[in-house]
Amino acid sequence: MIKNNSSLSLLEDLKREDLEKKRIIVRVDFNVPLSEDSKVKDDTRIRAAVNTIKYLLINNCIVILMSHLGRPKGTIVEKMRLNTVAQSLENILQRKVIKLSDCIGDDVQKNILEAVPGDIILLENLRFHKGEENNDPLFAQQLSSLADIYINDAFGSAHRAHASTVGITSYLPAYAGFLIAKEIKSLDKLIINPEKPFVSIIGGAKVSDKIGILDRLVEISDTILIGGGMAYTFIAAQGFKIGKSILEENQVDYVKKLLSKAKESEKKIVIPEDVLVASDFSADSNSYNVSIEKISRNMFGMDIGINTIDLFKKIINNGKTIFWNGPLGVFEIDKFAHGTNEIAKKIASLQGKIFSVIGGGDSIAAINKLGLDKKFSHISTGGGASLEYVAGRKLPGIEVLRKKDEK
Questions:
Q1: What is the pTM assigned to this prediction?
Q2: What would the pLDDT profile of 267-298 be if each residue is shown by its tens digit?
Q3: Domains of the chain
Q4: Catalytic status, residue 361
């Protein structure tokens, strides 16, 4: 079992005298979706870092922020610069953010040395340097030379052993920020004695992306509701025709074994009874609600059906702990977002009666669009990291923050 939150070295444990006038370098997760003109489309991850930033400002620190954006693979990609991220952060904080054109080098050092307590400095995209993803010691040391203390508040990158998440901790005192502390505390409530019944809702396109979490959820949850594109591999595994719907043929045997494992342990895996099918992936397509026995060969499965929505709602209504990762249909197209939206509304209606955690960028985008983000107990900013943590895997960026006597 993963150690709980108490074993982390936490920012909140530091006293004001430990922080005052110090240069604090903070790994944040500003890997946000951008529009075609490079504007921030969803600032959820930026807002998630605000509590740690404000706390450091209150304690009279020089705040140095670093993040990656996209996958530039060690080269400079102009559209992946953090300029618009800096503007978004300025709007949220209502104060100036000093955006630098690199994250290491003489000019960066000069700007840091000239900074005064209360300044907020945002370094350029870490992944413009190959040393970041390679966890290169020299690159990590160059980052560490900018500061006195390191704070990791980028849970979305905690499953990566990169220079800014792992390597830097060899050179600076390292602590978990408020976001990481909240993430671990919330996710621990799922994996350490969760209140029963524990209902998991797993969607998204591929079974292969969710193997680790499905194996774990069969052990710790009471019921798993399956939706999204991956549902059709489950449907096919039970002998039904799925038309042109997504199918991972190489995962059918795995699904059969998972279903058998669940049955043996008296757990329930619930697949859709009916689905919304369409002639193609467009808003103009002809669509019909059909039972899973009647998916025709020329149709695509696009969403869970009306009866399935009602069934899922009844199961959720009896739950006490809810974990949701992945949309239940092609939610980007409004006519195929009904299942995802209805399940989101159902969980939100139980606010105060259940403990609910949602993770994954697409799932979060869906509830943000509905304005339901405040109705969930916890929204995890790290889709991949949250899945790995709940699956029982150690996250490199978290393990290096463990108190030394407990590692």
A1: 0.89
A2: 999 999 999 999 998 888 999 999 999 999 99
A3: 7-181 (3.40.50.1260), 194-390 (3.40.50.1260)
A4: yes
